[in-house]
Design goal:
Distance between the termini: 65 Å
Structural class: mainly alpha
Low-confidence stretches: 1-10, 211-217
Helix content: 55-70%
Mean pLDDT: 83
Length: about 220
């Protein structure tokens, strides 16, 4: 092992381990690692190390989100990627419908993106005050991805947010407060949606938004 590789292991070991665990590194989820990866020298060092184990440093969100991909695809790598892609596809509709619900209930012009804060109590109040939003939350929360069996808005929304933290789409910086921050994994999700839309013509975002708007009319 070369001295340069040893330096990478010592100085950036935690960063590489996070990437290899499948984490999406952004300013919100891990600011120190994100700042390190904004340096071309660090990216070159990390890439050099990852290449030795058939991995590569990938990015999304216009270079603001970093994650680990495969350098070359053999049969084993294709199986892993196919499995991951299936998982994402199974989660797409619940996630898109949740994103549309948050956008509509919050009165925002744009979808939730990395760094945006969601105050659960305020969102819950707006959902409780609007029958269409309550119906949409019930639908979203009962998807297998979230698995709620409750008929109560409070239990439904808290389970959905808890699951989204587990999946890495949200962070809850202070356990004493019901304030959640969107991570860069959402920006990665948008790129996956655009890719599927472009290659398969599914128009998932449009379908979900149309469905929600139809419920509101």
């Amino acid at each position: 092992m070369s001295s340069s590789t040893q330096t990478v292991l010592v100085g950036q070991g935690a960063l590489i381990e996070a990437l290899l665990r499948g984490e999406f590194i952004c300013r919100t989820s891990n600011e120190d690692a994100w700042r390190a990866l904004k340096s071309q020298a660090t990216r070159d060092n990390v890439e050099q190390y990852l290449n030795q184990i058939n991995r590569t440093l990938a990015s999304a969100g216009e270079g603001e989100v970093f994650f680990c991909g495969y350098l070359q695809l053999g049969d084993d790598e294709r199986k892993v990627i196919s499995s991951q892609f299936r998982d994402i596809c199974h989660a797409l509709i619940p996630l898109v419908e949740w994103l549309v619900l948050v956008q509509e209930a919050s009165g925002q012009d744009a979808p939730l993106s990395e760094g945006a804060a969601v105050r659960l109590n305020e969102l819950q109040t707006r959902i409780e005050d609007t029958p269409a939003f309550r119906e949409q939350l019930a639908k979203v929360s009962h998807y297998r991805l979230f698995g709620s069996s409750s008929t109560q808005v409070d239990a439904q929304i808290k389970l959905v947010f808890k699951r989204l933290v587990e999946l890495g789409y949200l962070l809850r910086p202070n356990q004493e407060k019901q304030i959640y921050i969107a991570t860069g994994k959402l920006d990665y999700l948008y790129e996956v949606i655009r890719f599927i839309d472009e290659t398969e013509g599914l128009s998932l975002e449009a379908q979900a938004e149309t469905a929600t708007q139809r419920d509101l009319i």
